[in-house]
Amino acid sequence: MATARYPPAQWRLIGGGEADGAGNMAIDEAILSAVLEGQVPPTLRLYAWSPPCLSLGRNQPLGDVDLEACRAAGVDVVRRPTGGRAILHTGELTYSVALLASDPRATADVLEGYRRLSEGLLAGLRRLGVEVTPVDGGQGAGHRDGRRAGPVCFDTPSHHEITAGGRKLVGSAQWRARGGVLQHGSLPLEGEITRIVDCLALSEADREAQRRALRARACTLEEAQGRRVPFAEAAQALAEGFAEALHLRLVAGKITADEQARAGELRRTRYATCEWAGRA
Questions:
Q1: pLDDT in tens, 62-83
Q2: CA dihedral for 165, 112, 129, 239, sign (positive or negative)
Q3: How far apart, in whole angstroms, are the C-alpha atoms of residue 58 and residue 265?
Q4: Is 184 within the bounds of a domain?
Q5: Which of 163, 174, 197, 246 fits 183 for a cystine, CB–CB 3.0-4.6 Å?
Q6: pTM over 0.85
Q7: Which pLDDT does position 125 carry in this prediction?
Q8: Residue 275 parent element (H or E)
Q9: The domain spanning residue 45 has which CATH number?
């Protein structure tokens, strides 16, 4: 079993709940800070977004976004602390993992760390009966055919991300800072996988090309499974998958008062500001 590779550990599980884009990103960073300071154990958080939100990778140009279209559709825009490309968070489950870089489940090698944490995702999705495959050597910043990477995360799988039927099912990104690791990612549960295209600054021709590409290269859990999977069921399966694959005892917990206070400050001074959104 995969668990034999890791010593047993106890992590905190924060399940359910939703926030706006700036709030969710602030909470994830606040949790990482608390983990680094030894205030809380490593944490797996499973959550949703309200209202819908378009998140950009840490260094992705804000010019990729059609801000007017987002405002008209009631879609928030936020910049993640992690890398990657744009994701539209609606009808999905987001996971985040905060742990020390010294943890054997992270390792000093970024790609190996992705692979190890992806074991939890794979085990969870298989519990739902989905036939999933990890990508062995993804395209990273570009495509195998030499094209530059587009603005959409689900346009193509990167290293150790997860596909179902040859199409990308989970998009993940990572940030390493001060000896800690924050990894989070998106599992689309349902809906039209191409709806993100309406939020991007593209010509009509490019929009149609991007829609065709996404339909061919990405899918939702509903498509992969052949049925609608409720958030609670998907969250339980992922939590059990992480526990099984990474040899964890997950203990249900809540965000502490200190984390809430820190998240509020981070939201106010960073994630909800124009300066942070427009930094790239």
A1: 999 999 999 999 999 999 999 9
A2: negative
A3: 19
A4: yes
A5: 174
A6: yes
A7: 97
A8: helix 274-277
A9: 3.30.930.10
